[in-house]
Amino acid sequence: MVHLSVTPESSLADAPVWIVVAGLVPSQIVTLHASLTDEKGVRFEARAFYRANNAGEVDLKQAPALGGDYVGVWPMGLFSSLKPNKMHHRLMKRDVMGSPFHIQISLYDSYKVMPSSMDVPLKTCTVERWYVAPGVERFQIKTGRVRGALFVPPGPGPFPGVIDLFGGGGGLFEFRASLLASKGFVVLALAYFAYDDLPQTLTEVNLEYFEEASILLLKHPKVRGPGLGVIGLSKGAEIALAIATFLPQIMAAVCINGATCMNGASLRFGDLHIPALPYSPERIVITEMGTIASLHVWGDPQDESSQASAIPVEKALGPVLFVVGEDDKSLKSKLYAEAAIARAKKYGKNNCTLLSYPGAGHLIEPPGSPLCCISQMHQRPLQWGGKTELHAKAQEHSWKEIQKFFELHLGPPGNSNL
Ligand SMILES: *[C@@H]1O[C@H](CO)[C@@H](O)[C@H](O)[C@H]1NC(C)=O
Question: Fewer CB within 10 Å, N side or C side of the chain?
Fold first, then answer.
């Protein structure tokens, strides 16, 4: 009797899952196939081929995949190498509260690259991958000028407070905020353009907006204070660095693959103005695949001309953690981070650190997001870079380090057992 066990059957999207097959014939070749359909109806699939051991078992903690979307021992390989059936589509959970992603794991005899409806699986089971833990509440924020979504863990708190910023596509993404809230932080996923009644484009970064958001979050009765953390990706990382530099409310910043000077949009805060380095859109490169590499569109941090636009990170009160992917095809994020760290050191600020990951691309997210190396932004297929396995390892490692960093500088989260 063939048995397929996938445990736990319901978990947070960043948690590991353990897959074991038993009851096979010794040396039998089998296919493990994963599939999920996202909220837009796009199907994602991954498969790997395994050989049963002498006991007729395949334990993904020990057995190497012989081929498929990955090879070798990789317990989470089926989840981390999911690929869309529609080109250049990014897997992203939009409705974090209402439902999990359902991932169907099927076991087939022999190797099946593309199982059809004629192929009957030996076993199938479905796992739930949640982006929010039980008891975490979501509040839509439309207060003063501030627009976003606030995630509050269960219990009396107080909890450390964190502002979460996404990048240059605008809008509001909540999946990282809801996952972080599931670890015991109060997290404000903060929109800053192209959302609700905010401006459609980002022409200037006005820090008064982020100051208003920080004051609002600090006033929340479940936020511990006296200061906040901020986490940002891409354009959100640039802004995270800017607000950590100029807002006394920000005590710790995590900047993932962002510029460290004002790029494209200038900064304003009262009388303070930092001019933007202009974009050079004529430097985009269109690849053999028809995709767009924007690496050279942004200013070069090593260029003398970028100095006037550099964020004076030495003024930041709190520590800064830079997380960079060395295969980032969107931005020279490692050079930017190194330039900022060198600048900080020059002025005697020594609490900026760099976590640099070989083979990781631009979109470093919590574990559970499969690599997306190309996706559509502003109707163009943009390259983000990354190698599937190295990128996944970077996500796993950096996500733990980010939580440790916030815990160290903001105090313990509410309930680390959640
Ligand atoms: C970080 O460095 C700055 C500048 O040296 C210093 O004022 C601040 O106290 C440091 N913060 C922490 C948390 O170590």
Answer: N
